[in-house]
Structure formats: C-alpha cells, structure tokens
Amino acid sequence: MRLSFLGSCREVGRSAVLVESDQNNDRILLDYGVKMDGTEDNFPEHIRGRDLSAIVVTHAHIDHVGGIPIFFISGSVPLFMTRLTQDVSDVLLRDMINIARYNSNTDLLFDREVLGRMHRHTHTLRYTERVKVGKDSHLTLFNNGHIPGSAMALVEMDGQTMLYTSDMNATQTQLMNPVHPLPNKIDALVTESTYGTTDHEPREEVEKRYIEKVQTVLENGGTALTPAFGVSRSQEIMMVLHKYINTKKYPVYVDGMARKIGNIYKRYRTYFRSYGELRNALEKSNYISRDNTFEQRQEAKRANAAIVAPSGMLKGGTSRMYAEAILDDPNSAILLVSYQIPGTPGEILLKENKYVYNNNEQVETSCEVELFDFSSHSGKTQLIDFAKKCNFGDQERRIFAVHGEEETATALCNEMNELGLHAVAPTQGETYKI
Ligand SMILES: [Zn+2]
Ligand SMILES: [Zn+2]
Fold it and tell me: 256: which of 51, 195, 301, 311 lies 20 to 30 Å off by Cα?
C-alpha cells in the first residue's frame, strides 16, 4: 500500500490523501477539500477522476468536501460518506454556488447539475458498515466526534490497513459523542494535528464561563451575540443556552444557515449524544425566517436576548449586522466561540477592541468581547493519546500528521518521536510505501 499526501500538508485546508495498491489498480481518495483564503493554490494536487476506484468524504466542511464536485463535471467515481454528511455537504456546496453567483464569480467550476450527478453516484454508509471498494479493498467509517455525521476512515488494501482520522474530537460535547481508538490492527495512521501544540481548557469550564457571561449580560438588559458557523457550532451553542439559561425569560434568536442544518439534523437520531436535548434546543429557538426578515431582525437587535448568527469570525453573514447594533453598549457582549484566524475582524476585535467596518473604517468598541474555546478538534494530549492507543500489533508505529500549520504539525511529530512513536509531517505531493 502507498500513501500520497496531496493536500493539507503542514497547513490547514484542502485535505486530500490518496491510498494506492501495489498489487492492483485500486486507488482510493480520502477527501478533496479547498482552502478558502482567496489565493490560487486553493486545491490539493491534481488527480484524474478516471484513475480512482473510489472517493471518501469524511465530513461536511469545505476544506474536506469543497473540491469533490470537480470529479463529476465530465465523469463519475463511486463516492462514499454518511447520509448526514451527504445532506449537509449538499447545502454547503449549493451555498458556494449561490455566493459565486452573487459575487458574479465565474471561476467556480461546478453548478447544480454537477451536484446532481455527484448525488447520484453517492453510496451512503452507516458507521461500522464494511464495504468492498475497487477490486479488492475495503472501507469502514467510524464516528470521530468532530461534527454530526463526521467519520474517520479505515482502509484495508493489499493485506494492510490504514486509518485516516480526519478532523476528530476526543472531548464529549453537548452535540457529539467523542472519538475512541479502534481495536482493529493497523499499519499506518494518518492523524490531524490542528491543535498539535496546545491543550484545550476543559469543556465544563468553557461552558461555565460562557454561561456566566451570557447570564450577566442578560440580567443587565443587554444583548449576548454569539457569532457561529451554521453547521454544528451554532447547534452546540443553542444546546448550551437552552440547557442553562431561562430561555422563556430571555429568548434565543438564531439567524442564517443554522435553521436549515438543524432541520436536517432532526431527521437523524443516531449521530448525536442526545437527540432529545438537541431537538429541544432546535424547537425552542426563535428563527429569523425568510418572510419578514427585516422586522424580525430589528426586533432581535433591540431584544434583551441571546443571538446566534454566522459567520464565526465576523467575516461576513448577519453576525456583522447584530454586532454593529451593540458596539456602543457596555451592557452587551460579543462572545466568540471558535478559533479566530489572524487578520479576520473577529481577531482584530478580540486583540485590539476595534471593529472593522466593510469600508475598512475601524472604531473603538464599548461592548464586551471574549473568546470561548468550544473546539471540535482534539487537543495535543488527546492526539498523542489516540496515536498511542492505536493497535499497531508489535510493529513500528507509522504516523503521518496532516491538517496542522507547519510549526504545529512538526512539533507534534517531534513530541511523538520522543515518546517512541514514529511520526512525520509529510510535505505536499510526498508518497510513502507502507
Ligand atoms: Zn472539519
Ligand atoms: Zn478540516
């Protein structure tokens, strides 16, 4: 078996790993994502669809699924993922088309027709269901705790086995059950390394600090705005709010894609830690609907309430509008709940207490701003622990760290190597024989 690292090497974004057989023509591509930073090198290394036996999508994030449609422009490949990943990916990819259209961007290579073809070639898998792919290889997906429907992929080929964790989380969250190492014997592990050098604050403490802040803001008559991505993070925050806040007294308003995604989640019972608690949070929130959006948003802006709106880094989406309404109010707060990429409005707000308007004008703010680490990725110790607990039998542990910035991925490998594991952070295009 050979592993080629086509993307997300010493960086985060454009994930793609190719698993190839030495004995036949089996070639399985794991993820094909895009990097959304506006540069030209958005895609992983090029690969021809007709050379592939199968493609696996581990979860519905653009850095894993965003490039998949290009394989269906003029051809097709059998595509494997969970049903929930299929449904949510469809929403995200359609959204990419809408945004490109809105911006008159004609560079986007696919349209709805391509997505239709992709849909028709998708085989949905349940967790732990083992299927044959290609001539003589097998694939099994397992929960990996990252977002609802997400999976790690176990590939058996040439009598060998490799595990690709994709983005994983070993912490139990409101929404998800955590990832667990598998008993299956493996010959190679491809692990993510997003937080390869840092551990997260314990989740209970993050939740406690967040709730105390929201409570104080609401009791002081303010608005607690939580900018959050509509897939997974919004629902996680909604569950936290409905669990601990008196939402009859202080309503929860939800804007953006979160409603659509929540309606998809409601159709599946098996992907969540507690379907009942999720359903309760989804049903008791007030959604900004399409019909009288303007009036509802005005009402929400004035309300003594909690608001959850995209995007998570205040880069776009309706969170900006709500933020602009409370910037001058010392009783209100903007509560950031995801990593803030340097240079984004969220990061500038957090570091300098300045809000950047669309015309680049910057203003000092009076509202409170705080960051809460509601991460959906394992921290450093959890990544090492997972690698240690994988079953390599009595052979050398071969570990490949991807999906982490250069310094992070290499530092994690150094630490693993000191512990007697054999870890490398491959560079883009590198191939390893297992
Ligand atoms: Zn992800
Ligand atoms: Zn990712």
Answer: 195
